[in-house]
Amino acid sequence: MAAKKQNSPEYVQAIQNRKARFEYTILDTFVAGIQLLGSEVKSVRLGRASLNDSFAIIHHDEIWLENMQITPYEHDHLTKLEPKRSRKLLMHREEIRRIQSKMNEKGLALVPLKAFFTSKGILKIELALAKGKKLYDKRETIKSRENERQLQQLKKQY
Questions:
Q1: pTM of the entire structure?
Q2: Burial 114-148 (b: 16+ CB within 10 A, else e)
């Protein structure tokens, strides 16, 4: 029987939406697969994708990822795909309905946080149910971050 590797990471980080954690308060997270065409996976592996300004919508009991930019793969001359086309996310219907009911009740948004590859090489998207922050909430976040940095610098000095 083959032994499992103890130190192998569960997933390899590919793309992160840093702006989402600043703009929104994250309430709940979900993981979904993504349906890609042609050589889009190769472009994502090369890091030529961006989740900035992207969001997810629920349409006819399906989740669609909008505005995710995947730059076309350079060596693929057969297919020409739009960089910001809509991409279908793969989740169970029960889970989609649960997310939709939460979104309708509280007026929440569905925001992608990161895209990563599993240990089997499958691309997944981490989605979050999020509530938009007000300006004063953003200021508090900045202040707490600066205070934390100052504390870390003081610890290094002593």
A1: 0.77
A2: bbbbeeeeebbbbbbbbeebeeeeeeeeeeeeeee
Q: Tens digits of per-residue pLDDT, 87-105? A: 999 999 999 999 999 988 8
Q: Note the pLDDT tens digit of each residue in 101-119.
A: 998 888 799 999 999 998 8
Q: Is residue 64 part of a domain?
A: yes
CATH code, 111: 2.40.280.10
36, part of any domain: yes
Is residue 140, in this structure, part of any structural domain at all? no
Task: Tell me the residue range of the domain where 77 lies.
Answer: 11-133
